[in-house]
Amino acid sequence: MPGESSPRNATIGASRIWAVMMVALAARPLPCQAQDGRKLQPETARLRAVVETLASPEFGGRSGPGGDKAADYLVEQFRQLGLKGLFNGEYDQIIPGKEPNTRIGRNVGAMLRGSDPSLRDQWLILAAHYDHLGVHGGRLYPGADDNASGVAMMLEVARCLTRAKAPPRRSIMFIGFDLEEHALFGSRYFVAHPPVPLERVKLFITADLIARSLAGVCGNHVFVIGSEHSPVLRPWIREAGKDRPLTVDLLGADVLLLNRSDYGPFRGKSIPFLFFTTGENPCYHTPRDTPDSLDYPKFTEIARMIDQVVRTSLDAADLPRWQAAPDNPIDEAVALRDVLRILQKNGQAVKVNAAQSFVIRSTLDLLDQIVARGSFTPEERSRVIQGARIVLFTVL
Ligand SMILES: [Zn+2]
Asked: Before 328, cis peptide (omega within 30)?
């Protein structure tokens, strides 16, 4: 697969090489040590404990009173970590209803200020929606993967950052969004009422469904969406995913029909973003989305990978910039080919019908040509994306 380097690198002078090395070193996260010297990273037992708590019947599927309870839980976690409230010192951002003195939800946010005087007014956001579908017909929708998994990851990254020996250079906000399941209303409200001017938000990272696999058959695949608008993030993602039992697939947001989670409103404001997901699966939005059905080893690796991307971003010399025209790498075609092959191979298990099977076959034919050639035309990409969308949205 073509990488990020080019033959031109062979001719650059020694001082340039030195400068590049310094930037690379500055972008590499320092080994994150706890105050007592142990390596700090998201831990399986802690991730699992948060998921089991939030997905328990007590939290009522995190809607209505159960949603409030989940928000209270987040406030308590932030407080225990010693993080300050994000909204004028408060943890809550109340989302008002149409009628006066009513409210329809609450975002919960906390912050950790950076240590570098020249960078601490630059912000990174790490977010996960905590709401889910509630109880319907007497049945609890626990939402373990959707999205207790994302919340647990966020709290673990927050724990690691607050327990590290030195604070990061830039500042970070941790936000639990409400009402994602209601047309992303919580994150839309936040973007319309941000606690700092949005120009200071340099990167938005969110995760939604990070503890299973696409269609239940895609093993160790994890999808990362958003680097098409900020290609500088790609080496950071690759570095963070390296030496892990994960297959990291970089996709463009248009594969998912654009705004499928809380990154949408930030994307709409041209703020660099990353969205981590393992995709939809047979338990998605059913009462079967329970804690015991998650893949905890995979979930832990993804949480650690996100933790590494966050730390790299907080301390890097350079920041991602928004590039309006998406730059979709050939890696995307490779990823789609591999995923479609898996779905084809598991056609019976994922109930692929004849029409879907035809779309998979013809899209795979085109992808094989593209990957062999190592390039694609815009027309070819739109045919691939159309095929992939038909498969992803009708099979799953
Ligand atoms: Zn979700």
From this structure: no
